[in-house]
Amino acid sequence: MNDKSKAFFLRAQAVLPGGVNSPVRAFRAVGGNPLFIEKTNGSRVYDVDGNEYIDYVLSWGPMILGHNNPAVREAVLDAAQRGLSFGAPNEYEVKLAEKMVELTGCEMVRMVNSGTEAVMSALRLARAFTQRNKIIKFEGCYHGHTDSMLVKAGSGAMTFGQPDSPGVPDAVAADTLVAPYNNLEFVEDLFKNNDVACVIIEPVAANMGVVLPEEGYLNGLRKLCDEYGALLIFDEIITGFRLGKGGAQEYFNVKADIVTYGKIIGGGMPVGAYGGRKEIMSYVSPSGPVYQAGTLSGNPIAMAAGFAQLEQLDSDELYTHLGKMGEKLGAGLDNIAKELGMIACVTQVGSLVCQFFGIDSVKDYETARGADTALYAQYFQKMLASGVYLAPSQFEAMFISLAHSETDIDVTLEKAREALVGIRS
Ligand SMILES: *Cc1c(COP(=O)(O)O)cnc(C)c1O
Question: Which pTM does this prediction carry?
Answer without folding.
Answer: 0.98
